[in-house]
Amino acid sequence: MIHILLILCSIFTISTHAAVQDFCVADLKGPQSPTGYFCKPAATVTTDDFVSTGLRFAGNTSNIIKAAVTPAFTEQFPGVNGLGISIARLDLAPSGVVPMHTHPSGSELLLVTQGSIVAGFISSANAVYVKTLKKGDIMVFPQGLLHFQVNAGGVTAVAFASFSSATPGLQILDFALFANDLPSKLVEATTFLDDATVKKLKAVLGGTG
Questions:
Q1: pTM assigned to the model
Q2: 147: annotated binding-site residue?
Q3: Rg of the chain over all Cα atoms, to the nearest angstrom
Q4: Above 70 in pLDDT, residue 95?
Q5: SS3 for 209?
Q6: Is 196 in contact with 165 (CB distance < 8 Å)?
Q7: 13-17, 75-79, 97-101, 199-203: which has the minimum mean pLDDT?
Q8: Alpha carbon distance 201, 102 (integer Å)
Q9: ∠ at Cα 180 (186, 76), nearest 5°?
Q10: Distance (Å, rounded) from C-alpha 72 to C-alpha 91?
Q11: Fewer beta carbons within 10 Å, N or C terminal of the chain?
Q12: How far apart are CA 120 and CA 147, in angstroms?
């Protein structure tokens, strides 16, 4: 019981630090709890903890999905720890795609700054919401819902995604099904795909089983 109370107290301390302190820059050398990292000592905090320059540069889109996501989450940008916000840069080469995925810990707001992107999400009632976004357009993706982005033009598209969490999390559906050791027979049974298709997709994405 004492052990449980200590854990609860530590979680409460981290979750309320933004309300009782100006900030809580993440101590990335320490442990991470479900609500974030513990705070760095105030004496060691510098201006650089609140500044990130990583989103200036395009990500490497030389991969199977022709896309790159450059995050500025707590691990890359310690100053957002505990603030309930973060951001990432999305680069989509022509024909690039961010496959169907979810962010279990945060909602997403996408701002297109270059090119055009077809984006959409699927509600828990299986309603589909899809739109072609152009420069200056924004779209919101509610927390936990499956969503995607596809380059809609012949040039590289760029967008910035802000999140309602410093660590929004990520699970890509294709990778969850075909990039691990989940036995093919179980994948077939739960997706209604045939054996050849499942094995082909596992081979493409590096899965086994």
A1: 0.87
A2: yes
A3: 20
A4: yes
A5: coil
A6: no
A7: 13-17
A8: 20
A9: 140
A10: 14
A11: N
A12: 6
pLDDT of residue 19: 56
Please, is 143 exposed, middle or buried when counting C-beta atoms within 10 Å of its C-beta (0-12, 13-18, 19+)? middle
pLDDT band at 153 (very low <50, low <70, confident <90, very high): very high
Q: What token pair was written down for 107?
A: 């909602």
Q: Which amino acid would we find at residue 132?
A: T
106-138 per-residue burial string, b: 16 or more CB within 10 A, e: under 16: bbbebbbebbbbbbbbeeeeeeeeeeebeeebe
Helices and strands in the chain: count of H runs, count of E runs: 5, 12
**Two tokens, residue 68:** 């790159």
Residue-wise DSSP of 121-188: EE-TT--EEEEEE-TT-EEEE-TT-EEEEEE-SSS-EEEEEEESSSS---EEHHHHHHSS---HHHHH
108 is in an annotated binding site: yes
